[in-house]
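G.,

No rush on this.
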Amino acid sequence: MAKPAVIDVLVVIGTGFMGASIAKAVKQRAIAKHVVGIDSQSAQQALSLGHIDVQAESIAQLPKVFSELGVGSKESSIAVVIASPVRTYPHVFTELAPLREMLSPGQSIAWITDIGSTKSGVLKAVNNLGNLANAFVSSHPMAGSENQGPSDARADLFQSARVLVSRLPQSSDDAVAAVEEFWIALGGQPSLLPIEEHDELLAAISHLPHAVAYSLAGMLAGSPLAGAAQALHGGGLRDTTRIAASSPELWADIFLDNRKQLLAAWSEWSLHVEVMHQALEAADRDTLIELLQQASQWRKGFLS
């Protein structure tokens, strides 16, 4: 695929680990001429680390920032990545809505995307975008880390990562194509997924695994074996609980935002755990082998 056209300005709203990683990758790959970051907590650090070129105090300040960057009086394309917590979406979308009218002649909003791990909040907030809704396409890069700040940002985070791309009824074909091209330019592998199916799928393949990891780590943290488990653990515990080192605030919001779907997945998992528990209690080796074999074969079928 041909390299996408260079964006004049990329605005990253939320410059924590994920947002800063996007900004860093964009700058390293020269995908945008200017990268602007908006985040009251971490944009200054992202700026000092060179992940962004300019820090804006708010969305309302963007026209002034664009002018200072020298893109205020000529044809220029502007793209926006929303990398702030899902709970901020109603406010962020409302603040973005008048942006098109605030721009100078020749400036245009090419596309807007988010990177939220749940999409119910997107569906509730998208109408707040007003006439910018046709430029919005939702995304979810299946990449991340237990790291939480811009100091840990990785330009290679999205290399070979699956990126779920979900159009909304208002999304234009051009916006969908541009967002797909953006993720490809970052090394990602976009896959279209109906937004209505997103949260049920992610409850099973992401949110439940995180909940299980947190639960296991929490059980050990509160046990008499806590110290020994930290000091003497092997790869099994380290690999199984790695994601439990992620941001508790972020994952509490994800769990609550996708509460219904996560509870349904949790119920199915609990039933499977109980079957294994009963087989173990009965010392039923044949059933244990059958259960483990089914799980093992499924896991070996992963593409990577």
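When you get to it, here's the other one too:
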Amino acid sequence: MHLNINQSELIAICPDPVIAINRRGTISVFNRSAESLLGYEANAVVGSMNIRQIYPNNSEARKIMRLMMGDQLYGAGRIEGYETYVLNSQRARVPIRLSAAALMRAGRYRGSVGFFHDMTRQKALETSLLKQSITDDLSGLFNQRHFYVQVASEMMRIKRYGGQLSLVCIDLDGFKQVNDRMGHLEGDQIIRQIGRVLREGLRDSDQAFRYGGDEFMLMLPNTGMADACHLANRVRELFNLECSYSPDSLINSGFHVSMSLGVVSCSGAEPVDNFVQKADIAMYAAKQAGGNCVKPFDTTQC
């Protein structure tokens, strides 16, 4: 049986937002899906709103037009699967994938029609998957792989623009006793506790990582040695206040858990591994001093 359906009906029932414009950029078609995506009513935008008003800026609107009319990427007069974002009626960003075609008559441009696929759920899923790939499940901190990516990026920044970068290497004193005498579940609780202490005790610009086991790293951009040592000591004090097994705790468990912290700073280019190793050396100096203390890297240890 032949299905008799016209273009306007197809546009109306299309699950993706469809927006068409005339040659001046004024919106001429705005279907129900477009209303749902952007929060505007069709009768309020058709014939009065310019397409540039839903793009983040004029340069993005011009870029889309250049891509559509050029023949290098998609072929003259069309664009397929271009990812960008538009602004809804509340001026909030909505990620979309755009496919569009120019409407030509006698070789002259008379407008275009675009299909705006909502990418909100997909982008949220991508963000969630990325977070999972760079986060340690137990502590809630970033993992070792992300640590090296971030340190390398920050060292490239100071190489280009100058500044200082400090690392704090943290290792727990007495943690093995917790696992041996109290069980791994209690040890896991301490790791979670450290995650909370580090997230709450750092500045917005700082980052904390679980380097492995009971070892942690702090990356402190734009921070010299003195300030880094001060912050490291504050973290140590916060942990001692929170941990039931700390030397400051009133609970007599027969053993103590504390932090040994080593600090290193740089203001120039050096291999990432060397920089990290210096933080590790400083941390072992803190352990050798009895633990529960902060030690800066000593250049005579090189």
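Strands lie at 18-22, 27-30, 78-87, 93-105, 108-118, 165-173, 207-212, 215-221, 258-266, 293-296. The first strand starts at residue 18 and ends at 22.

Enjoy the weekend,
O.
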